[in-house]
Amino acid sequence: MAGDALTPASAAVDPAGEIAAYLAALDRGLRGPRRMRADIVDEIGDGLLTAADRHRDRGATPAAAARAALAEVGSPELVASAFAGELATARARHLLTALLLTGPLVGAWWLLLLAPAWPLDPAEVWEAIPVLPLVGAAVVVAVVVLTATGRHAPRLPRLTPRRTVRVVQAVATACAAVDVTMLVLLATVAIAGTTVHPPALMVVAAAASLARLPWLGRSAHWCRRAALSLD
Amino acid sequence: MRAETLKGHLEALLLAVLEDGDAHGYAVIEALRERSKGLFDLPTGTMYPALHRLQRTGLIDSRWEDGQGRRRRVYTLTDAGRSALHAERTSWAEFSTAVSRLLAGDRAWPATP
């Protein structure tokens, strides 16, 4: 390594520039939540600079030290690939959290619109909102995946990143199916002219589902691509 | 050592290094390399994801510190991590004893007739 410093090529190298170029390449290769990507780049950058400091302390020139540090860390593609699973898992968890938070916001309008009069009879609610079992299953699966990939993971069977995004894809698809089914049911009664529901509530419930559908579609699509890239 | 061989044990090894005290990522990886006398010498960048996985699952925690003009992430072992490390040590001791006995050709077990 010290010999590298004697060559004309390495003498012209800007060590800080080389490390900055490496970090820029790494940033381009990472796919996932923005804040997590920024943290990864900062952490790898700190590791590179620390490694370069150690090599300089052992007598290497700044250029040779930077080069040795870059050789230790691995190529940007290799490091980005090593982080792919963690980034995919983080994004999948964000999606599940968003689904669990937005679900009640959408569901509440449909419940207000379609639920029979108080007190609620489970059989009547089931009949009025036939997708409830699917909603319940999606919620249970989402909670299980969040638990199994979070701080309680060591006590549960390990979920691989690939399996995690596959499950999130299924949950997002189920939620989309719920929204489409409810919209179709509403359209059917509206076209037949048999509805007794308040028009304003119908518009709000339909708008809530329509607003969520494109996001659900993009989420399911991202999960599918992420699962394929993790194969 | 092949990366695949180390992969199944990497998280326990990282926990063991952090048992000695808080450390930033590069220091953890360097300690791993030095304590193994260079045997565990994977590209350092591929070991950081294991630290992130340990943090996500609550076995270690981290905080950011500012110093030398840059942010530095410092890891610390949690109580859950300490328990997991203890369980790993017990499991590894049983496993390695059994494998060593077999590889050494120990024929203390009764032979089948």
CATH superfamily of chain B: Winged helix-like DNA-binding domain superfamily/Winged helix DNA-binding domain
SSE succession of chain A: HHHHHHHHH
**Number of domain modules of chain B:** 1
Strand arrangement, major sheet of chain B: 1-3-2
Given helix and strand content, the structural type of chain A is mainly alpha
Radius of gyration computed on alpha carbons of chain A: 26 Å
What percentage of the residues of chain B does DSSP assign to strands (E)? Answer: 15-25%
CATH architecture of chain B: Orthogonal Bundle
- Shape call of chain A: elongated
Radius of gyration of chain B: 17 Å
- Could you tell me how far the N terminus lies from the C terminus of chain B, measured between alpha carbons in angstroms? 40 Å
Number of helices of chain A: 9
Descriptive account of the structure:
The complex is a heterodimer of chains A (about 230) and B (about 110). Chain A has 2 domains: about 1-75, no CATH class; about 85-230. Chain A has 9 helices and no strands. Chain A has helices spanning about 10, 15-30, 35-55, 60-75, 75-115, 120-130, 130-150, 160-190, 200-230. The radius of gyration of chain A is 26 Å and the shape is elongated. By secondary structure, chain B is an alpha+beta fold. Chain B has a single domain (about 5-105), classed as Arc Repressor Mutant, subunit A. A 3-stranded antiparallel sheet of chain B has the order 1-3-2. Chain B is elongated. The mean pLDDT of chain B is about 90. At the A-B interface, α3 and α5 of A face α3, α4 and β3 of B.
